[in-house]
Amino acid sequence: MLISGRGSNLQAIINAVESGQVPASIRVVISNVEDAYGLERARKHQAEAVFCNPKNYSSRREFDLALVDLLKKYEIDLVCLAGYMRILSPEFVQAFKGRIMNIHPALLPSFPGLDVQQKALDHGVKFSGCTVHFVDEGVDTGPIILQGVVPIEEDDTVETLSIRILREEHKIYPMAIQAFVEERLIVEGRRVKIRDIVDL
Ligand code: GRF
C-alpha cells in the first residue's frame, strides 16, 4: 500500500483483511510523508510501515526505482494507492503493469486530478462518487474496476460531500481488492469484468 496521509482507505482494507473478507496480507505500507497517520494504522496492524523520503533522491524516476526495488523485496502481487499524492513515473507503472490500483473520489472520467469534490460542486452535477481503477501511465485514466455513486444535496459543502463519498470508498476499495485476489477480474482492453460479484 502506498499512502501519503490519514489512511482511512488503508484502515478499511486492514479491517477487510482482518475480517477475512479480503484473503490477502498487507506486506508493507509505504509513505512519502513521514508523519502520515496511515503509518500508525499500519503499525497497529503489525504491518511493515516504511517512510521513504523523496528528498533523498535526485528525481521522481530515481525515487520510483527505489520504491520498485523495495516492493520487489516484499514479493507483492498488487500495489494499492490510497491517498498517495505523487504521480507515478512510467518506469514504476511498467514494473507492476496491471497490478496497481487507485481510488479516486469522483466518477471518472469526470473530474480527474485534485480538489475534485469542489469541482463536482462547482460544476453542479447531481451525483458524484468514487472510482477504483487500474493505474496506467496517465493521471486517473486507467481501466475502471468499480464505482460507487452518491447523490449531491443542495446544501452540500466539500466536507459533507467528501464524507459521503469516503463511506463509499471504504466499501468498494476492499471489494475490488478482494475480486483481484480471488482472480475474478477479467480485463478486456478498457473494460474490467467482475465474475460472481457479491452484493453488499
Ligand atoms: C481519498 O479521498 C481518496 O479517494 C483519494 O485520497 C483520499 C485519501 O484518503 N485518492 P485516506 O488517506 O484514505 O483517508
Task: Please characterize this protein's 3D structure.
It is a single chain. This protein is of the alpha/beta class and 200 residues long. It has two domains: 1-97, Rossmann fold; 102-200, Formyl transferase, N-terminal domain (Rossmann fold, 3-Layer(aba) Sandwich). It contains six helices and nine strands; from the N terminus they run E-H-E-H-E-H-E-H-E-H-E-E-H-E-E. The chain has helices at residues 8-19, 37-44, 60-73, 90-95, 116-123, 158-181; strands at residues 2-3, 28-31, 48-51, 79-82, 100-104, 127-134, 144-151, 185-188, 191-194. The strands form two sheets. It has a seven-stranded mixed beta sheet with strand order 3-2-1-4-5-6-7, with helices on one face. Strands 8-9 form a two-stranded antiparallel sheet. Helix 1 packs parallel to helix 6. It is globular and about 45 Å long. The structure holds 5-O-phosphono-beta-D-ribofuranosylamine (GRF). 5-O-phosphono-beta-D-ribofuranosylamine binds next to helix 1, strand 5 and helix 6.
Number of strands: 9
- What name goes with the CATH superfamily of the largest domain? Formyl transferase, N-terminal domain
Report how far the terminal alpha carbons are from each other. Answer: 24 Å
Indicate the mean pLDDT: 97
SSE sequence, one letter per element: EHEHEHEHEHEEHEE
Helix amount = 25-40%
Task: Record keyword descriptors for this entry.
single chain; 200 residues; alpha/beta; Rossmann fold; 7-stranded mixed β-sheet; two-stranded antiparallel sheet; 6 helices; 36% helix; binds 5-O-phosphono-beta-D-ribofuranosylamine
